[in-house]
DNA sequence: TTGAAAGCGCTAACAG
DNA sequence: CTGTTAGCGCTTTCAA
């Protein structure tokens, strides 16, 4: 039983399918009595429009796709909240949300190439994934609007933060508190996804310290795979140094939590013996009282959704904007 | 530029569109040389199948829909992980994931009714939402497979836990430790969504206590809107009682975190002066060292996805199974 | 203002 | 094995 079609409604209302279609799409050129008859037939039959057929006919889908790595990460969730918030409201409630999780680096290219077709989604939100010129070209060829979140490409609208500046903020915060020997725990720059934010944060951080006269000690930078436990191990190594750091800057809150845990296991008191500062300000940070560099994740997701929706409506291109989001330090109980 | 169609490929390969379609769908009745010619044409043209057209033609969508309230809740995320894990693998990688967030109770009915159509999704995963007979009937009428997670209905496959038993486990855990005066912090039974798990947990909990000879004191049950801070306030009230409880059972980990925070603010030491036990065992619980009743959220999501995929493949119905998941208590540092 | 007809891109009988 | 022919359900000229 495939449910009533537009023809059934037409027959019942004594009009043509075209007229029903017009009523359904709020076309102004339908006489009021006709509209009413059609509407009545729609109600009686419990008719609802078939989205697939409509999409095929008009040539675009009424869904927006979100491509994310680690759908599991708290920061991703936070951003998704912002996206959902925007999709669920106003005139855009019509767009559905398709989620594409990119768990392995090998899925990365595939997912993008797969999606670069207007028929599945009306636009793409690409989070935290580096994108190549060829991929952008593919999107352009198919006229598929896309916006980048936490990623950058000159030909795509994007919402970003200044990771280098974030590192500086962390450095300043710790310098003011008298720290001179400071460790860093973050992602390995050669990670399979090509993420660079951790490395950018580290650079900003170290440079700011050097400008303040603090010499860099390579032994204090510990890089490894992303993850709470991995970060814990890195921090443990740092704390076991003959001359351990008095503070640690972690490239993300998740990693900072790992650092905190390592300190606890080694009986190092925070913040007295070790200050810890993270990055992101996810929910968790507030819960554990972590001092961190806050980036407006949720707002970023919402903004990106708005940008995408606007690009879809606008159709044509225009110069891609870059929205830079403000970073602030949120002081809590770990520094 | 709408990209090459199946006809373009057909022309180029010197065959009919039907043959191209057969090749695309791995039909066995195509001669190898023909298949190769078609494949070559596909590659040269960079052709990719239009999902919308295919869906319209075969009459079903290649996506599964997930309907969730509070997309924001950690437990929901955890379950989604399980779902994504299953969708991303094996022969089912072909299914996309559509997310339908139900933020307000008023969206509840709408979302479901809207989705009860084969044309947008091939099946539905409904999480934590009570579902009415009428809604089930609508799903059946449209032959739309659906499975319930953390919800129940006799005519739908479902994965559930025994919340009452969970409450009992919490009671047993606290009784063994000598607690007699125990508070409960949970959701109000008359919540707008119709959630009942909190209340079920409370009942199992109180009944177990009574069976052990501990009389119930209504003043020790504090119910309010779901949320960390709300739970904190409820707990604060409990702790300010002339005769405060020595332990608190929270209906969820999120609420337990609120309780912990309240204790901290009131300088009540955990677990010495106050034992706290939560429910769910989300990531957070491990991080803060919360003792809790563990329900396998991720596995539940995965299982539900498998059930749904199976139902979709099977087509017809069969007797809906109920998968009951095991509950265990995970002892950490708050009891 | 409404209807007829063609078509979106693909699949699925049915012949051959 | 492969091609022809009809749709799937909706939109959209083009006429009337």
From TrEMBL, chains A, B:
<dbReference type="InterPro" id="IPR028082">
    <property type="entry name" value="Peripla_BP_I"/>
</dbReference>
<dbReference type="GO" id="GO:0003700">
    <property type="term" value="F:DNA-binding transcription factor activity"/>
</dbReference>
<dbReference type="Pfam" id="PF13377">
    <property type="entry name" value="Peripla_BP_3"/>
</dbReference>
<dbReference type="Pfam" id="PF00356">
    <property type="entry name" value="LacI"/>
</dbReference>
<keyword id="KW-0805">Transcription regulation</keyword>
<dbReference type="InterPro" id="IPR010982">
    <property type="entry name" value="Lambda_DNA-bd_dom_sf"/>
</dbReference>
<dbReference type="GO" id="GO:0000976">
    <property type="term" value="F:transcription cis-regulatory region binding"/>
</dbReference>
<keyword id="KW-0804">Transcription</keyword>
<dbReference type="InterPro" id="IPR046335">
    <property type="entry name" value="LacI/GalR-like_sensor"/>
</dbReference>
<keyword id="KW-0238">DNA-binding</keyword>
<protein>
    <submittedName>
        <fullName>LacI family transcriptional regulator</fullName>
    </submittedName>
</protein>
<feature type="domain" description="HTH lacI-type">
    <location>
        <begin position="4"/>
        <end position="58"/>
    </location>
</feature>
<dbReference type="InterPro" id="IPR000843">
    <property type="entry name" value="HTH_LacI"/>
</dbReference>
